[in-house]
Design brief:
The complex is a heterodimer of chains A (about 250) and B (about 250). By secondary structure, chain A is an alpha/beta fold. Helices cover about 30% and strands about 30% of the residues of chain A. Helices cover about 70% and strands about 5% of the residues of chain B. The chains are: A alpha/beta (about 250), B mainly alpha (about 250). Chains A and B meet through strand 5, helix 2 and helix 3 of A and helix 1, helix 4 and helix 7 of B.
Chain lengths: ~250, ~250
């Protein structure tokens, strides 16, 4: 068993807010282990804490108690520049609202993390074009986000998340702002990246379509993990909608 | 099978290692060897600043106009004061009329000070708005690995460019208008004399010659813009990305 089998581990992870004198436990002693190469979906209703858990794992916010280990390194011990290095090289983020830089073209958006990683312009442009082609947007490289549809923006965001060959992709409601068909495309894309590039995908979502491609599903409610299920143990039948699906 | 080999050894266990050497990520090896730093080359920063200014041309124009107007007013006050002194001297020689000096001096200092203050408040407001509007972008950039210093650098560059442009233009226009206004009263000879006259004079007789005051007005807008952007940009850079991304702009 390889030592770094668990790429993400949380221990007693808690996030407590005090709102108007009342204590709100967004996360309550969450212990989660995620294996390298897994596709994990964190599912729960709104306010269950899945976005908070996402923020903790991604180092976007600090927990009140507990620890997050990325490849057995305690995130809280990292300096600001080490954290930046982690975000630049190890983790790729995908957001519900795409979060592309509006003044930059698709290619510039995708290559921005590469700039931070120190790639030369040529290397970055080549790699950026490759990634855009991989997500199916090779011809739209010079379009700004305002000239792209939601699904296309999310695909650019996915390409950007892969810019520096990260070990982990963190996706917060990646299909939240997309219609059924486009959402499915993104999910298929994420699964492809998980298969082909062996990236660990951790997705916080309430989109049930994600269940099918996940290796494990973590059900979260009121800040606590309700249960964790392997995909093979989940039986769902989702109705098929008529129309232009196939 | 593990794809990532550890460079060197690191003690590990449930508590995690006390920072082993950085493991090499696949794929990113520059020609010079292993690159571990996060960088933002100045050329790229300048390019991004240029893009930011031009794509948000309306907003940039408003920010620069605010600086332009404030500095133009300041320059006009200063040059006008210098010309006024020349005019007073002329009146003294020609007509033997002595104008009240002390009140005039105090008025000039007050006007110049106030106009600088008004300009500063305007600049601070513009910079605050500029940074706040882009919290989401800042949060995103931090997720891509940007260091806090990069964020600050980008905003200071933008503030500096707009500030110095607005300031230079304001200084030239403000002074120019006053030159035209006073040319009628004291003639072009008088106007050129104004350049070496004190714009601001203190009771001790020491003062600020106009040409020096002009250089001051050329630069002060840019300097104030950079200073005004410093705190908002620094604060925005230090925000945890989760908070920055929550912004609704």
């Amino acid at each position: 068993m390889s030592v770094y089998e668990y790429i993400v581990r949380t221990k007693d992870l808690s996030k407590i807010y005090t709102l108007g004198g009342v204590e709100v436990r967004a996360l309550d002693n969450v212990a989660l282990d995620i294996r390298r190469g897994e596709y994990v979906s964190i599912m729960g209703p709104s306010g269950s804490g899945k976005s908070t858990l996402f923020n903790m794992i991604g180092g976007l916010d600090k927990p009140t108690k507990g620890t997050v280990f990325i490849d057995e390194v305690d995130m809280a011990q990292l300096t600001a520049s080490e954290l930046a290095f982690l975000r630049c090289r190890k983790i790729g983020y995908i957001f519900q609202t795409f979060n592309l830089i509006p003044v930059m073209t698709a290619l510039e958006n995708v290559t921005l993390p590469m700039v931070f990683a120190g790639l030369t312009t040529d290397e970055a442009l080549d790699k950026g074009m490759e990634l855009l082609k991989t997500v199916g947007l090779g011809e739209r490289y010079d379009h700004k986000p305002t000239e792209l549809s939601g699904g296309q923006q999310q695909r650019v965001a996915t390409a950007r998340a892969l810019a520096n060959d990260p070990a982990i992709i963190l996706a917060d409601e990646p299909t939240g702002n997309l219609d059924l068909k486009t959402g499915k495309e993104i999910i298929t894309l994420l699964k492809r990246m998980n298969d082909e590039k062996k990236v660990t995908v951790i997705s916080a979502t309430h989109d049930l379509k994600m269940i099918d491609v996940s290796d494990r599903v973590v059900w979260i409610r009121d800040g606590k993990i309700e249960r964790i299920q392997e995909r093979k143990d989940i039986q769902i039948s989702v109705g098929v909608m008529e129309g232009e699906d196939q | 099978m593990s794809e990532n080999q550890t460079v060197g050894s690191a003690p590990r266990g449930p508590e995690g290692p006390s920072r082993g050497p950085e493991r090499v990520p696949e794929g990113i090896k520059g020609r010079a060897g292993i690159k571990k730093q996060i960088v933002l080359p100045w050329s790229r920063a300048l390019q991004m600043t240029r893009e930011n200014i031009f794509v948000r041309l309306g907003r940039s124009a408003i920010t620069a106009s605010g600086i332009f107007l404030g500095i133009a007013f300041l320059a006009a006050v200063l040059f006008g004061a210098a010309c006024q002194r020349v005019a007073s001297d002329m009146d003294l020689q020609k007509l033997g009329v002595q104008h009240e000096a002390r009140e005039f001096q105090a008025r000039v200092i007050w006007l110049a000070g106030m106009s600088l203050l008004v300009a500063t408040v305007g600049i601070v407001n513009s910079m605050l708005m500029s940074v706040t509007e882009r919290y989401k972008e800042i949060g995103t950039m931090k997720c891509l690995g940007a260091l806090d210093a990069f964020i600050v650098r980008l905003f200071l560059l933008e503030a500096g460019v707009l500030g110095f442009l607005g300031s230079a233009l304001g200084a030239v226009v403000g002074t120019g208008i006053m030159m035209l206004v006073y040319a009628g009263r004291i003639g072009w000879a008088g106007v050129s004399k104004a350049w070496s006259t004190h714009a601001i004079e203190f009771s001790s007789g020491a003062g600020l010659p106009m040409w020096l005051a002009f250089i001051f007005t050329l630069l002060i807008g840019g300097i104030l813009s950079i200073l005004a952007a410093l705190y908002p940009a620094w604060r925005a850079a230090k925000m945890p990305p989760a908070a920055a991304l929550r912004s609704e702009f």
